[in-house]
């Protein structure tokens, strides 16, 4: 699909996300010739500065974070299409200025361009900006497409997500709204669907009859860095479980969609979320673990604990680790425990889905001294070492029938020998093309919050001792009890 002529406006253009991800992604799209011939980028943030100063900010961000060394001609070509507006998000005059600029750019190019508004500010401004876009009459145009791309977090709990949604739907039609969950833009996350629905051999075993449990891990080795202001309010559950991890879960558990069309895929995903019963307070006590990192190791260096991080209150009870046991209550999955775990400052960065099959029903080799027969395990690794691996039992060479597990592996790096695009490249391009499959729909986001909300509430009410784990470790021991009699895969 070609990308139509577009003016992309980024609210929060001097923020961390724009700096590290959005501007470099736009550069890489330009490098690949994926941007339309008529394309403008308007950067918006609260600081006043001339266009050239913002171009310098963008140039530096791209040089520092682009996945490829920028080519001077491509980079300057892109920057020549960049404009900047210093903004007060609550002031109608700012939106008038923006509108005038958009119209000027339309005229310069000889006709109207699509208008895409990307909200990458602090989340409290999302409703303010959305409402103001309507007041300024920027939310709809009969001649071109107008879209609103909204970064996470979409609300901080079920109620606030509903409130935000009611503002959004007052201003935009659902088909104009693109809610970002950047995990869906990752090649390896999309490969979960390719793996399941482009291969015939796994589908027959993809159910409760053959699968013992599923483990989804999103472990990070880094701490919270300089994000205390955001993170201490959010915690691991809101930061990663509510969005990325539940999205991974839906992709593993969904029924095959009839087509890759946005609503067909999202209809199947939301059914999975609706089949997860929100836990009662008692279930939260039994089926969740939260913990905070203490001093230890990060990348070979001694580091302090979470409470010593700059900007974190001494008595913070925010979790930096969460483990949860869930079940999808439907015919395919009833009785299969699905374990999710995520945390900062764990042993290493790894995002993976491990599908543990049941043991064979009868072991013919036992009497011959077999060792190490393990149930098959299929691991889809999103990062690092992106790929798929399947463990099999194999005969150890020799005169006796001894078995041990071996791995059959597909690795992206060696199979395709090319660098994958970054998630944001795919997402920005898809949004500009009006392709919504890799964005979350309103009902999905609300269903995600409906699962997470009771956990947040029960954790808030529980004033008991918080679990801890050493920085650089595999997490709190309480998480091993949660998963028993199963075991977490080693980190
Ligand atoms: C973000 C979280 O959504 O995802 C961060 O806010 C986290 O805390 C990040 O570090 C992880 O993303 P990725 O792409 O590095 O796995």
UniProtKB/TrEMBL annotation:
InterPro entries: G6P_DH, G6P_DH_AS, G6P_DH_C, G6P_DH_NAD-bd, NAD(P)-bd_dom_sf. The active site is at residue 244. It comes from the Bacteria. Substrate binds at residues 182, 186, 220, 239, 344, 349. GO terms for molecular function: glucose-6-phosphate dehydrogenase activity; NADP binding. Its EC number is 1.1.1.49. Residues 10-191 form the Glucose-6-phosphate dehydrogenase NAD-binding domain. PROSITE patterns: G6P_DEHYDROGENASE. PANTHER family: GLUCOSE-6-PHOSPHATE 1-DEHYDROGENASE, GLUCOSE-6-PHOSPHATE 1-DEHYDROGENASE G6PD. Catalyzes the oxidation of glucose 6-phosphate to 6-phosphogluconolactone. This is Glucose-6-phosphate 1-dehydrogenase. The gene is zwf.
């Amino acid at each position: 699909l070609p990308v139509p002529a577009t003016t992309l406006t980024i609210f929060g253009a001097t923020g961390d996300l724009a700096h590290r991800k959005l501007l470099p992604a736009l550069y890489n799209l330009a490098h690949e010739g994926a941007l339309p011939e008529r394309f403008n980028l308007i950067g918006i943030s609260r600081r006043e500065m001339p266009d050239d100063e913002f171009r310098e900010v963008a140039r530096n961000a791209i040089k520092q974070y682009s996945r490829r060394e920028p080519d001077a001609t491509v980079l300057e070509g892109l920057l020549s299409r960049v404009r900047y507006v210093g903004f007060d998000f609550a002031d109608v005059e700012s939106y008038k200025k923006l509108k005038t600029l958009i119209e000027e750019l339309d005229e310069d190019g000889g006709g109207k361009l699509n208008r895409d508004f990307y909200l990458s500010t602090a989340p409290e401004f999302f409703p303010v900006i959305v409402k103001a876009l309507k007041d300024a009459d920027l939310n709809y145009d009969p001649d071109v497409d107008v879209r609103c791309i909204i970064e996470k977090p979409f609300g901080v709990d079920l109620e606030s997500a509903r409130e935000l949604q009611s503002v959004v739907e007052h201003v935009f039609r659902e088909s104009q709204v693109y809610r970002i969950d950047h995990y869906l833009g990752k090649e390896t996350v999309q490969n979960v669907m390719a793996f399941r629905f482009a291969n015939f051999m796994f589908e027959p075993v993809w159910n409760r009859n053959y699968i013992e449990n599923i483990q989804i891990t999103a472990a990070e080795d880094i701490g919270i860095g300089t994000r205390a202001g955001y993170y201490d309010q959010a915690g691991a559950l809101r930061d990663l479980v509510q969005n990325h991890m539940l999205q991974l879960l839906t992709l593993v558990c969904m029924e095959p969609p009839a087509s890759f069309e946005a609503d067909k895929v999202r209809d199947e995903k939301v059914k999975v979320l609706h089949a997860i019963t929100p836990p009662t307070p008692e279930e939260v006590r039994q089926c969740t673990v939260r913990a905070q990192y203490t001093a230890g190791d990060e990348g070979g260096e001694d580091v302090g604990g979470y409470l010593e991080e700059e900007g974190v209150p001494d008595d913070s009870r925010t979790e930096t680790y969460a483990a949860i046991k869930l079940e999808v209550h439907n015919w395919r999955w009833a009785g299969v425990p699905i374990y999710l775990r995520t945390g900062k400052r764990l042993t290493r960065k790894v995002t993976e889905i491990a599908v543990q099959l049941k043991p064979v029903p009868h072991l013919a080799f036992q009497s011959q001294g077999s060792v190490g027969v393990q149930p098959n395990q299929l691991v889809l690794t999103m990062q690092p070492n992106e790929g798929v691996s399947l463990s099999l039992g194999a005969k150890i060479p020799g005169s006796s029938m001894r078995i041990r597990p071996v791995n059959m592996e597909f690795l992206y790096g060696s199979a395709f020998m090319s660098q994958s695009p970054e998630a944001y490249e795919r997402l920005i391009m898809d949004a500009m093309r009006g392709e919504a499959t890799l964005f979350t729909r309103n009902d999905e986001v609300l269903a995600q919050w409906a699962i997470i909300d009771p956990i947040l509430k029960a954790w808030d009410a529980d004033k008991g001792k918080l679990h801890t784990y050493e920085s650089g470790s595999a997490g709190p021991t309480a998480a091993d009890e949660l998963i028993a009699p199963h075991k977490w895969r080693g980190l």
